[in-house]
Each structure stands twice: as structure tokens, then as C-alpha cells.
Amino acid sequence: MKRLRNPRTGIHQGDVTVFADFENGGAMWTGSGPRERRKKVRFDETFASPPAVQLAISLWDMDTSVSIRAELVAENVTAKGFEIVFRTWADSRIARLRASWTAIGDLPFADDWDVQ
């Protein structure tokens, strides 16, 4: 995790293989209709509150003989991690997908008070 000069802000980045279905005949490659894959990501350090998470496709291997339909979102974002969610539908065939992510948010600080 990067810490900015402001010790309360952190930036954490990663790159994760979400799935690879072409080798084993998985549903993303051989199926049709609505399909979804989820990949949990845990942060190296816990943020003070849920950060903003940005996703990007860093690798996609798709069949171009049919329409390419895809959605990539971050869901269930907490201070400790989130889920990468990839969805496709109809006759789209996706062999594999890798996603890069960036989380930016508040970090715990030594002078924070825990008042209950």
C-alpha cells in the first residue's frame, strides 16, 4: 500500500486473475445465458472505512465470433476488502479474464480516538 504525505490516505493496487475457463470447459467458455464469477480481494492493510475501488480489465480472452457482452464491478466493499464481479449473458464466450484494481481511502491514524 502507498501512503501519501497525508498519513490518513492510502492507495492500494493489484492485478487478479478472475477466471480461466477455456482449459477446463467452464461455464464462461462453454455456457450461455446469464453467468457470473466472483473473486474476493483482501487488502494488505485495513482501511479506516470502505475505500473507493476502481476496476479495469487487464486481460481478456474472448471469442469474437459472437457479441461480446460484459460487466465488471466491485461489490461488497469493506475496509478489509471487496469482491470483483464479472458478468456476461446470452451467447458471449469468455475464455479468461484478469482485472486490475485500485483502492483509495482513509487509513487508520495513531492519533485517532476510539470513542464509544
UniProtKB/TrEMBL annotation:
Domain H-type lectin span(s) in chain numbering: 39-104
Gene3D superfamilies assigned to the protein according to its UniProt record, in alphabetical order: 2.60.40.2080
Top-level lineage group: Bacteria
Name used for this protein in its record: H-type lectin domain-containing protein
Phylogenetic placement of the source organism: Bacteria, Pseudomonadati, Pseudomonadota, Alphaproteobacteria, Rhodobacterales
